[in-house]
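Students often ask why inverse folding is considered easier than folding. One informal answer: many sequences map to the same fold, so there is more than one right answer. In these notes we will look at a single instance of the problem. The structure comes first.
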């Protein structure tokens, strides 16, 4: 199982230097690419998920990311701790 990036291919940094699609900063996107273990990727997904909740935005992300996970036969809900 390879956990996909939280990026949903919007990549517009118009919200306090965060992408309006996934909430990641450019540095966070670079960091995710460097992560090797699924354990660390899962922790990162939780960080992004909680970051989105703290911002009170990005409600669209979960549905789009779940579709991305479905292609890899991964249940998004199993990634959230």
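Output (designed amino acids):
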């Amino acid at each position: 199982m390879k956990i996909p990036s939280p990026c949903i291919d919007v990549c517009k940094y118009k919200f306090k230097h965060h992408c309006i699609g996934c909430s990641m900063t450019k540095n966070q996107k670079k960091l995710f690419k460097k992560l090797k273990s699924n354990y660390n990727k899962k922790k990162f997904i939780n960080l992004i998920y909680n970051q989105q909740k703290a911002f009170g935005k990005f409600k669209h992300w979960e549905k789009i990311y779940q579709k991305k996970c479905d292609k890899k036969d991964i249940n998004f809900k199993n990634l959230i701790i």
